[in-house]
Write a structure and sequence with these properties.
The complex is a heterodimer of chains A (311) and B (265). In chain A, a hairpin with a 5-residue loop joins strand 1 and strand 2. In chain A, helix 4 crosses helix 13 and helix 13 packs antiparallel against helix 14. Chain A is 71% helix and 2% strand. Chain A contains 14 helices and two strands; from the N terminus they run H-H-E-E-H-H-H-H-H-H-H-H-H-H-H-H. By secondary structure, chain B is an all-alpha fold. Chain B contains eleven helices and no strands. Classes of the chains: A mainly alpha (311), B mainly alpha (265). At the A-B interface, helix 1, helix 2, helix 4, helix 5 and helix 6 of A face helix 1, helix 3, helix 4, helix 5 and helix 6 of B.
């Protein structure tokens, strides 16, 4: 109570001049407004502009004529292109499909790892957590690069499989969708394991003891108690891989084939190869719209988990 | 509950850790390979490291990246620490919701969108693209990570020490410098390290916001990787992994020492 009053007094008193508190808020706020908020307004504006061959390669959206007239050159052309040209449709659907499959595979691989971690003796757990986090600190690009040497036709995986006699002909994995799935799952696995582990670790073990005392078999106890209680962690894990996977550029570009369409890659080539900045902006806005729902859902889930609520 | 690991637990843990580490281990191993081919082991050699040192393009890019990472992570740490303190300690103020949204958004935003948006901004204000614009871009996204790390450390402490200092007449800025900052120093250091590695790692945002003469290491590696796998890239990757591993080892040693010191007090 006292502290709140204190804070309010400071807030009122300091509104008149420059203060430490005011500066502490203003400096990071101004930076993010200038380099995050304004840029999005610019992308939005540009997505309604017309492309021209010039520097910069678009027409201004608003024009003040010399006679004082004001014209708005806003066009919906770029958005209409998104709907009519099936390149964009296929890119969006391709991104959603690849992100969804990768998420499912990552959960199937990540859950048993997280479960194993939560069952390990308490002294091992911090070590296991560090082992899972460490790869995240090594460069993303380097880890994707490492997969190329393993997955390519004359790569280490094919070498291992043929010398074990499991296959006769080397498999074509690199430059296919399968390589993208492997790349996404490999890169984001730590993000999947940790939230699931967090939800399994804080879990009340007496529930399982009670179930066992009442004659419930361990497998049944897992399906009826452990799994449902860990679902908030599973949902957080799914979103932590799904959201970045939809907009992923590096993995489909380096591991995928040329016919694989993903929206991040399409945006990149629209911008760098076709130099069509307005269409690239429209693609960015549409991608953002696609991601708003999962992002908002994720934020709400985080808030719930932070308050220790069950969903 | 039956503590201890079942056979299934052991197998999934072993396979999971192996999956995470095998590609990195192979990458490091083949950086010491005599042969150019990645699948044929032709004996131990450090010739790719020697060749790397003579590769001016890669060396220049590495130098640019280190400068960008150092400057951007330092600025991001200052701004991010302020933002973390604001979020954890300042209570309500006008525009707080937007502020916390601006901190959270860059973390989940696809890099292609952030990169495009920043580039268009630099074009709009006719700022020439180069090292400076890459630094600005890196500060923008990494300050959010620092803010989150600092905020969560602050939320773990109650305010009693800070309030005691203020009650005894210590001005807010001095309270921050003598009480709050030492308490959150481990988080600030971790935030700096995180910002540094994020900057060193970024390809997409740097590609959008960089200009001629400001090729960063990931941009250079990317353009070489597109042409094919070479042991030189393995060598520079191994060096980068080594640097990050050393930094993490030092950070955890310092952390342990602090903890022991706090315990013995």
């Amino acid at each position: 109570m006292r502290s709140r009053l204190h804070h309010r007094l400071i807030a009122v008193g300091k509104r008149l001049g420059i203060t430490g508190r005011g500066l502490a808020i203003a400096v990071p706020y101004a930076w993010l407004a200038a380099f995050f908020l304004v840029p999005f307004a610019i992308v939005l504006k540009l997505s309604f502009s017309e492309v021209v061959i010039a520097i910069p390669p678009y027409l201004p959206l608003f024009e003040w004529g010399e006679d004082g007239s004001f014209t708005v050159n806003a066009r919906l052309d770029n958005y209409i292109t998104l709907f009519t040209d099936d390149l964009y449709w296929r890119s969006y659907l391709g991104s959603l499909k690849i992100a969804a499959i990768s998420t499912a595979v990552a959960l199937l691989i990540g859950y048993p790892i997280a479960y194993g971690m939560s069952r390990a003796p308490a002294a091992w757990r911090p070590v296991l957590v560090v082992l899972v986090i460490l790869p995240f600190w090594t460069s993303f690009l380097i880890r994707v690069y490492a997969l190329i040497g393993i997955l390519k036709k004359e790569g280490l995986l094919n070498l291992a499989l043929t010398s074990l006699g499991l296959i006769r002909e080397p498999l074509t994995i690199l430059n296919t969708d399968i390589a993208i799935y492997i790349g996404i799952v490999y890169s984001y696995l730590p993000f999947v394991v940790l939230p699931i582990y967090a939800s399994l670790e804080r879990f009340d073990l007496t529930l399982l003891e009670a179930a066992a005392d009442l004659g419930c078999r361990p497998t049944r106890a897992f399906w009826t108690i452990t799994l449902p209680l860990s679902l908030p962690g599973v949902a957080a894990a799914a979103l932590l891989i799904f959201i970045p996977a939809v907009g992923e550029f590096v993995i489909p570009d380096l591991l995928g084939g040329s016919e694989t369409l993903m929206i991040g890659k399409t945006l990149w080539s629209e911008f760098f190869n076709n130099r069509d900045w307005p269409v690239a902006s429209a693609v960015a806005i549409a991608l953002l719209v696609l991601l708003v729902a999962p992002i908002v859902y994720f934020q709400r889930l985080q808030a719930k988990v932070a308050h220790g609520e069950r969903w | 509950m039956q503590h201890g690991l079942s056979r299934f637990n052991v197998v999934s843990l072993t396979l999971g850790i192996a999956f995470l580490y095998t590609p990195i281990a192979l990458l490091v191993l083949f950086s010491f390979n005599e042969s150019r081919l990645v699948t044929v082991w032709a004996g131990f050699s450090t010739k790719w490291y020697a060749q790397l040192l003579r590769n001016e393009g890669l060396m220049n890019a590495a130098w640019v990246s280190l400068q960008v990472a150092f400057v951007s992570s330092t600025i991001a740490t200052v701004l991010g620490t302020l933002a973390g303190v604001v979020l954890a300690r300042f209570g309500r103020f006008p525009g707080r919701t937007l502020f916390s949204g601006l901190i959270a958004a860059p973390i989940v935003m696809p890099e292609v969108i952030t990169g495009l948006a920043l580039l268009l901004t630099f074009v709009a204000i006719s700022l020439d693209r180069g090292v400076l614009t890459v630094i600005v871009a890196h500060v923008t996204f990494s300050l959010c990570f620092v803010a989150i790390v600092v905020q969560s450390r602050l939320l773990a402490f109650d305010r009693s020490l800070e309030e005691a200092a203020m009650d005894l007449g210590c001005p807010p800025v001095r309270t921050f410098l003598t009480i709050t900052l030492p308490l959150i120093m481990p988080a600030v250091a971790a935030g700096w390290l995180l910002a540094f590695t994020l900057s060193l790692d970024d390809l997409v945002i740097a590609s959008f916001t960089s200009g001629p003469g400001a090729t960063t290491l990931p941009m250079k590696i990317y353009s070489q990787v597109r042409l094919g796998v070479t042991p030189e890239i393995n060598a520079i990757s191994t060096i980068m992994i080594g640097i990050v591993a050393a930094a993490l080892a030092i950070a955890s040693l310092i952390g342990k020492r602090r903890m022991n010191a706090e315990r013995s007090q």
